[in-house]
Structures are given as structure tokens and as C-alpha cells.
Amino acid sequence: MFAPLPVLAVVTWQVLVSGPLLTPDERLSRALVRSVPDAVTERLSDLGNVPVAVPVLALAMAYAVRRGNLVGALAAGLAMALVPALVVPLKLWTGRPGPLEPWAAGYFPSGHTATAAVAYLGAALLLRPYTRGPWPVAAALVLTGATAVGLILRGWHWPLDVLASLLLCLPLLLGVAHAVDRGGRSRFGPAGRP
Question: Are 60 and 180 in contact (CB under 8 A)?
Fold first, then answer.
């Protein structure tokens, strides 16, 4: 089974000590930054803004509560609340400069990527028991991926910043998935349907 936290620990260590993983990370970033017009990459990056992503999660939480899955909705809300609680200290600790702003610090891990991942994938996990087909998860993966790609192509984050955020959010999302399943069974039975 894939263990995201040990991989996150290795990536964070590499950032702290300016290890060899930073060379391909910086090389990849240089090859990609501004290879797409800024107008496009800025819109993609905006998908990770709190005013854009969090309302999507809030609507899904309200729907889940209405359908009787309070446990899942609370878990998704807690996961979103944990994003800044986990990301901000890591940014302060690592102090990594940005690809286009070497004088600034606090780019590792990407808060926009973490916000997008927890908001969109959390919403998809909440909606999944009530929909036909995998479209909520597919849509959430597209939105999260678009955010990550936009951040890298625009030069607002290194690829490792984005990867670290995804690794950090995976345990949060697994917790949401578990809570959604548990909350759905408690009222509706195994499938989460009446």
C-alpha cells in the first residue's frame, strides 16, 4: 500500500537540505513555466482559491447533511479546517522561495493545491453515494489537476510544492472517505441509499 506521509517526509527533507531532488524539480519548472499564456494558467490556478473551492465543498456538505450523512459532512469540514493548520507551519518551517520570486519564501507546500484537493475531492466523496457513475470523483480530479498544472505553468509553485500538498491531503481525504461510508451506513444501510 502507498504511504504518502513517508514520501512527504522525504520530499520535505530534500527541500530543507537543498537535496538532489531539487535539481530535477527546478529543471522541470524552468522548462514548463510560462509555456502556456498567463491568462490561461491564472484561471486554472484560481480554482484553488478559497472563495472558489470552499463553497463547492460547503454545498456538498449541506447536501450530505440533508441526506442524513452528518458524520461525512463534519469530516469534510474538519479536513478543510486542517489544511491551513498543516500547510502554514510547513511553509514557515521550510521557507522555500518561489520559481519566479527567489526573494520570497513560503511556497512549500502549495496551499492552493491543498485547498483544491480537499474541497473538490471532499465534495466528490460526499456526493458519490447519491450519484450514478464515477463523475463526481472524475470532475474533482480534473479540477484539482487543473489547479496544480496552472500553479506550475504560471510559475507560482515548483512541481514538488504541488506534489507535497497532494501527499499531505491524501490522509485527510482517506479520513473523509471513511467517515462518508460510516455516516451513510448508519442511516441508510451499506450503499448509503434509502
Answer: no
